[in-house]
Amino acid sequence: MSSISILHRACLRLALLPLPPLRARATALRPPPLRRHLHLPHRSAMSTAASRLSHIAAATGAGGGAAGESNEPPPAGPAAAQEDDGLLSGDMGYRLPPKEIQDIVDAPPLPVLSFSPNKDKILFLKRRALPPLSDLAKPEEKLAGLRIDGNSNTRSRMSFYTGISIHKLLDDGTLGPEKEVNGYPVGARINFVTWSQDGRHISFTVRIDEEDNKSGKLRVWIADVESGEARPLFKSPEIYLNAIFDSSVWIDNSTLLVCTIPVTRGSPPQKPSVPSGPKIQSNETKNVVQVRTFQDLLKDEYDADLFDYYATSQLVLASLDGTVKPIGSPAVYTSIDPSPDDKYLMVSSVHRPYSYIVPCGRFPKKVELWTVDGKFIRELCDLPLAEDIPITMSSVRKGKRSINWRADKPSTLYWVETQDGGDAKVEVSPRDIVYMENAEPINGEQPEILHKLDLRYAGTSWCDESLALVYESWYKTRKTRTWVLSPDKKDVSPRILFDRSSEDVYSDPGSPMLRRTDMGTYVIAKIKKQDGSTYVLLNGMGATPEGNVPFLDLFDINTGSKERIWESDKEKYYETVVALMSDKTDGELSLDQLKILTSKESKTENTQYYLQTWPEKKQVKVTNFPHPYPQLASLYKEMIRYQRKDGVQLTANLYLPPGYDPSKDGPLPCLVWSYPGEFKSKDAAGQVRGSPNEFPGIGATSPLLWLARGFAILSGPTIPIIGEGDEEANDRYVEQLVASAEAAVEEVVKRGVAHPDKIAVGGHSYGAFMTANLLAHAPHLFCCGVARSGAYNRTLTPFGFQNEDRTLWEATSTYVEMSPFMSANKIKKPILLIHGEQDNNSGTLTMQSDRFFNALKGHGALSRLVILPFESHGYSARESIMHVLWETDRWLQNYCVNSASKADSDSVADSENKTLSASGGSAAREALGPEGSSYLPRSLLSNFFSRCS
């Protein structure tokens, strides 16, 4: 993890990530400082298992239906059968998994929490259960790497809240009675909830489903926090929010700056029935342009016009008293960022010429400085189209980047400029230079050099004129450094505070905790003890060989000495510091008045939040969330350690069903679910990550659902791919993959919890790639596999994939040997492929599964392909998710639980392969039953989604 990632973890722990951003004064993806409001953390594993905490929003976006309601009609007839293994001839309906799985997935979601700026009130933002497929089926435009809902003029498939309630946080740390926000229309879909700077009002957007299941456009509403009464911000019913990029931001306690749809905008441009000419791309200048497999790109001039139509905004200043003032001209504004003193606006926009090969994040970008009422001051930069960013890791765009306001100053800008042309392969010193200057330079002042870096700039944490921390990192070596600067004291030289490997989690010192200033920004908190000594607070995960033991240290920046003032209970619980609650006063905070918000959980107790106060270190429970799946409350969890044959230490979480007794029940069928990771050293790969006491969160597609079906689950076993020294990790990918899998299987068999002939393997995305490779190269380990949304042929991603930054032509043998597509003839064990029809992830185009299935079928492999209409890289709709669970459960029951012995299975597979090859594959359908080829027919789209980064 890089230094800036660690920094983000510290100050973004209260930021809601997967749902539409509950914004303060910065764009959704901008690094800290955060402003204006705080949120409880999204604490999810970086995988499709979704959130560990059911009351924190899931990563898959849209919701669907009211909490606790079913979006599926009651079971009736064959299409809704729960245990029936076969579909009727011609029946292609969605299926439901067994009830024990349904009940967990359909559990009502808990609300998301958001603290007021003064930490004295909490919003409970209510959510619905999984969305119906009809939500995903709404028309969307795929433009410049974005997916747009043209009816609502937002990103498509946005999640939303169904209601807002307010609780006071009382002096004793408990919650006051609930107060509902009211006045908005019944059935409203709520988004973009933000606090005013003084915490007296909240703004949010409302949209209503219209006829034909179309969502209406977003209107901005305001609610008085004291009374709970809500009303529209704009008196005119014709002013709507444009939420393609930025949405709105509080300028002061009574004024918002809103991105609106221009009132003069007409109908969308019409696609010409006859093209004006051929589509031409040219490289007659012989430029070297290498790009990854981005999706949903612009295809022609009509697409470019459509992008302009939906993305163009008119900025409007709107006061709570009803005053409305348009500022600036309509443009494709991507971010609006007020200065800390609210006197200036930094306004970013993209403009033509656009590109057909990269998403909008690389379009020409202009950054301007305005007064807060819209008067143009000066242009900060106008960057050209960036089609030529090298694919090498740590490469960046040329020109000014990461332009931000200093959090500790009223209106000082800072930014970074590359000295290597953005190309990580170029050796140069310095590589990056950080500059700063006043918003309006006086007497022709030139930008001041803040710091020069030999690695790639990775962010800044500000404190005051005497303290700032600057981070740099380099992916190739995993090196990360933290520099201590005195930004306004020229006689103090920068010095390195920490110099370490980002992979070495045991040496992670933690990240500085931030406090809120009177300007609404966040800066490094300084803590003063009674003897007058001053420290900063370092919040760390505390990785150890026994698991994570989070901590809070008082750290002396000058001497490097530290004192631990809080640490997680490592015997039974897993606790983390979520937020600094005593941050209402500018200047140094007294240790005796310190307040922090912590989370606390165990293997059997779901996460609750607590207020900790000093000096008595009193702990008060703030929340009392019910157990999300009480039927699995007594499941068994153990973090286990074992060794690969080359000596690398590996870790995994072993889960066993409630009530399981190994002496009575014997070995169980087992599902191994994982995701490979790259490392530069064996020592780093062998370090323990995570805690044995973490609560086992179960998302809508989690492998842990099969605990309810009597499976042992080995979740997240370490699959390290190590490239030490000059060696690239992927050059021995298959060898290391198999070695890791062998060690995992040997361990669960040795423990007597897994039947050696009934071990299945599965994964999502790169985990699906892993699954296919293991079935091809380690068929002796697994009886079957489940691969979701994977990429299987690396020649289809010739300019890099995952963390591989060599091209196909530079590492041909690696690309070929890593591709399970090239080893389709070796796969003899049953494999279930699942893929969203509209996958938006770079590299994992839906055709990857199409072509892999055809290759498997061409060699007579027992295989099945399930294409989910309207679904993207992750799956959202209830119908889709339930069907995925049914498919997976059926596959595991048929080819794992009821599988023959290894010898019989291999013999049968060999016999079937000969028959299938001779018969052209019809026997495969017979082997699967009448549903063997019952995936929906479709046509592949030529362009796919990519994030606009």
TrEMBL record:
One of its GO terms (biological process) is proteolysis. InterPro entries: AB_hydrolase_fold, Peptidase_S9_cat. Its main location: plastid. Residues 742-896 form the Peptidase S9 prolyl oligopeptidase catalytic domain. Serine-type protease active in vitro against the LHCII N-terminal. Cleaves its substrate on the carboxy-side of Glu residues. Belongs to the peptidase S9D family. This is Probable glutamyl endopeptidase, chloroplastic. It comes from Urochloa decumbens.
